[in-house]
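Quick one: structure for this chain?
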Amino acid sequence: MVKKTKKDIHAQQDVREAGVAETGVETPGTAPEDLQAPTVDRELEEKARECAENYDKYLRAVAELDNYRKRAAKEKADAIKYGNESLIRELLPLADSLERALQHADKSNDFESFKKGLGMLKDQLLCCLGKHGVEPIDCADKQFDPNYHEALMQVTSRERDNNQIVDELEKGYLLNGRLLRPAKVTVCKRPDDNGTC
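Got it. Here's what it folds into:
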């Protein structure tokens, strides 16, 4: 057996350290345990810091989502509460015109002027509603359509076709093409040749 001197042991350690420095790879059993511990601690600290950053980002995202939900709920409530504001603002001049018409009716006995004024008020109201997508359903001499009309009465007549609208009792309206209120109408029922319905 060959005895190793201190000089030989130091030379072997120098060779091992030089090999690690050159290749970057340690051979098993060459690195002392105390050299690996700081590396693991540093990695743990980095991962802990990364975890804390991610948790902070998560908390901020949850808070932002909660704030967004509250803001959206408030905006929805405001839209419901004040959604008709523009329509009501446009109806106010009509209320003013009605008030003026009533004041004028107290001072005058001219029925024709009063009737003409009411017609103008009606036109003003329909114009205002038209700006908001409301349009009347035309029923004059049309065939009965259950999608747009509601038959309240049926009359027999040879002058009109079967299921033709005879009279409009209450006007119907569409809102942007969708039925808002059906027109209430009287519908014709033609009698048979025998005179029975």
